[in-house]
Automatic annotation (TrEMBL):
Residues 4-184 form the Hydantoinase/oxoprolinase N-terminal domain. Residues 205-491 form the Hydantoinase A/oxoprolinase domain. It comes from Iodidimonas nitroreducens. This is 5-oxoprolinase. GO terms for molecular function: 5-oxoprolinase (ATP-hydrolyzing) activity.
Length: 683
């Protein structure tokens, strides 16, 4: 037997999932995260799960991992000190940045720009110049460059970035500068923009490459340590990490291009949701991934998640493909508080995290959290993780009571207020990916996962009008499921910068062919057979003079047949009108062309449940009481493992399992589908 292991590191818990390749049988585990060293929870959790399942490390054929190491390095300001080499005359490129001030009209009269990841004192100029057409205007003055590079030795730089003007057209100078840098700094990781983002727009290219350098040492250390620990354990299979766009990349590639990992953690849940939705016969899905620290939401249309050409983490926005995921500081560990100034209840974004965690966890937490409110309301029973973690109900009540006293209301009213506020926060995030993108949420189902998502899903479905609400099997470890069932992905792009009238289909077909061969070769080096590779192509288009582009899928066959430009123009007009409600009678410009290669999809199939008679009584654990809609109501607690296909669970009800808890509201009913998904609809 061979197995694949998926591991996802969250702010509170680390999720582990083992899948038997031949049968699809699964084993799942959940251990507290170790923020000081995330790999410790990864290794310890994997070892514990495999020991319980009787899996030998040598039988693990693949190890798939979603990580937040790059994300945390940016958010916590713990990236490497980066040196930057730019073309002479462009030393202040990161300081000038873009003339964009966030906020509403007059909302940010004074806005201090974030500190650049490569400070000015660590930026030097290379005496050279490449023309916009790729011709050499000025050769490199190597002697002067070497003198300037040596001044960086006193700055304590830990990584080096090279971003020269027009290198996306001709990278000869960048590569020569990199050779010189390697002679002077043989122990530093060196990144050139032609490898990371060969596109026009110098600021975005420089910022993205510098960001890659900033997180590169931390990611390389983490990946190297994890690989060594896995080898010492006895695992021979390859380690792959999840990219921000939902694909996989090798450990070596991730250590060299970690800017593609900035949204690695949240991408796992969307990848898992796509896999579940495909087998459940659902095509349009809104996803709700609620963990202990934050909630991630995304939109899946016609079985495909929406992609963005940018990745945003904190104040940093880089030009790297990622799933269109929006994150809010709303999780089970979000802290409730009543500020002295306003005396109004606030929830989050501060989180109790994994340590000390909510008061109910009994690990020293003292501040009321969303989890504590759910315990007080009876939505969470007395234990988590299949009985391995007992909850301190009395402690949760005392913490929420302090909030109630500050507000001058009752205990249950305060707890309900905490839950309502966090629901509204998540509701706002869901509107960002649906209503504000031109989609009607009533045309979508809502799939909730993460440790806390199923508790709040029914309420969010009611707010959004999105039915059914889908709770997949093992919702608490669905991100790990996504890690384990997605596929290898490689991407490259090229700036084009011509209007449709200035080019023709044959030119674009030739360029797409070249890009396709480049990314296909990357997967072939990862032992993917050429016949198994799937290719996708995109074009970024805009009206000439616009400052932003619209990414659109294109067909290579259309360009080969001489009808690609016409089809692209029609698609652009449709998408532009959907996004902005208007079109212009102006030339359309092709800004960038992009090719993506993917390995075959996982052939794993979900296990089907035995068929039941519709009566869930065999899964009943006990009668229960919950506080809902302003009053105490009778409810029933069910064991999800004992529910059968076709069973119908009327609300109010609490459905428990090892890694999560599902709440069914009053006047709603949950039905179990053949694959074990819980489908909640109004009664």
């Amino acid at each position: 037997m061979s197995y694949r292991l998926g591991v996802d590191v969250g702010g509170t818990f680390t999720d582990i999932l083992a899948i038997e390749n031949e049968t699809g049988r699964t084993w799942r585990g959940k251990v507290p995260s170790t923020p000081d060293d995330p790999s410790r929870a990864v290794i310890d959790g994997a070892k514990a799960l495999c020991a319980d399942a009787g899996i030998a490390p040598k039988d693990i054929a693949w190890f798939f991992h979603g990580t937040t190491v790059a994300t945390n390095a940016v958010l916590e300001g713990k990236g490497a000190r980066v040196g930057l080499v730019v073309t002479e005359g462009y030393r202040q490129i990161l300081q000038i940045a873009r003339s964009y001030v966030p906020g509403g009209l007059a909302g940010w009269i004074v806005w201090p720009k974030p500190e650049p990841l490569a400070p000015l004192e660590c930026t030097i100029e290379a005496p050279e110049r490449m023309g916009a057409d790729g011709t050499i205007v000025r050769e490199i003055d190597e002697e002067t460059l070497r003198t300037r590079l040596k001044t960086l030795k006193d700055e304590g730089i830990e990584a080096l970035t090279i971003c020269l003007i027009n290198s996306y057209v001709n990278d000869r100078h960048e590569r020569r500068v990199a050779e010189i840098c390697a002679e002077i700094f043989p122990d530093l990781p060196i990144t050139i923009s032609a490898d990371i983002l060969p596109e026009m727009q110098e600021y975005e290219r420089a910022l993205t490459t510098v960001a890659n350098s900033a997180v590169r040492p931390a990611v390389a250390r983490y990946v190297g340590h994890l690989e060594k620990a896995l080898r010492d354990w006895g695992m021979d299979g390859p380690l792959h990490l999840l990219r921000s766009d939902g694909g996989l990349m090798s450990a070596a590639k991730s250590a060299a291009s970690p800017v593609n990992l900035l949204m690695s953690g949240p991408a796992g849940g969307v990848a898992g949701a796509v896999w579940v939705a495909r087998h459940a016969g659902l095509s349009n899905i809104l996803t709700l991934d609620m963990g202990g620290t934050s909630t991630d939401v995304a939109l899946i249309e016609a079985g495909e998640p929406r992609l963005r050409r940018e990745t945003s983490v904190g104040n940093l926005t880089v030009r790297a493909s990622s799933l269109d995921i929006r994150t809010v500081g709303a999780g089970g560990g979000s802290i409730a508080h009543v500020p002295d100034l306003t005396r109004a209840l606030r929830v989050g974004p501060e989180s109790a995290g994994a340590v000390p965690g909510p008061v109910a966890y009994g690990r020293g937490g003292e501040q009321a959290t969303v989890t504590d409110a759910n315990v007080v309301l009876g939505f969470l029973p007395e234990s988590l993780l299949g009985g391995d973690m007992a909850l301190d109900r009395k402690g949760a009540e005392q913490a929420v009571q302090r909030i109630a006293d500050a507000l001058g209301i009752g205990l249950h009213q305060a707890a309900a207020g905490i839950v309502d506020i966090v629901n509204e926060t998540m509701f706002g995030a869901l509107r960002l990916v649906s209503v504000q993108q031109g989609y009607d949420p009533r045309d979508f189902a809502l799939m909730a996962f993460g440790g806390a998502g199923p508790l709040h899903a029914n309420a969010l479905g009611r707010l959004m009008g999105a039915w059914p609400v889908v709770i997949p099997p093992s919702p608490g470890v669905l991100c790990a499921y996504g890690d384990a069932t997605t596929r290898l992905r490689a991407e490259t792009q090229r700036s084009f910068g011509q209007t449709a009238e200035e080019t023709d289909d044959s030119v674009i077909a030739a360029l797409l062919d070249e890009l396709g061969r480049d990314v296909a070769d990357e997967l072939i080096r990862e032992a993917v057979q050429p016949a198994d590779i799937t290719m996708r192509f995109e074009a970024d288009m805009r009206y000439q003079g616009q400052a932003f582009e619209v990414p659109l899928p294109v067909s290579l066959d259309d360009f080969r047949a001489g009808k690609g430009l016409a089809a692209l123009a029609r698609a652009f007009d449709r998408e532009h009108e959907r996004l902005f409600t208007f079109n212009l009678n102006m030339p359309r410009e092709l800004v960038n062309l992009r090719a993506t290669a993917m390995s075959p999809e996982s052939r794993l199939a979900p296990q089907e449940l035995p068929k039941g008679d519709g009566n869930p009584s065999a899964a009943k654990i006990r009668d229960h009481s919950v506080f809902m809609d302003g009053m105490e109501k009778s409810a029933v607690i069910y064991d999800r493992a004992r529910l059968r296909a076709g069973d119908q669970v009327p609300g109010p009800a609490v459905i428990v399992e090892m890694d999560s808890t599902t709440l069914v509201l009053d006047e709603h009913v949950a039905q179990i589908d053949p694959f074990g998904n819980i489908l909640i609809t109004p009664a």
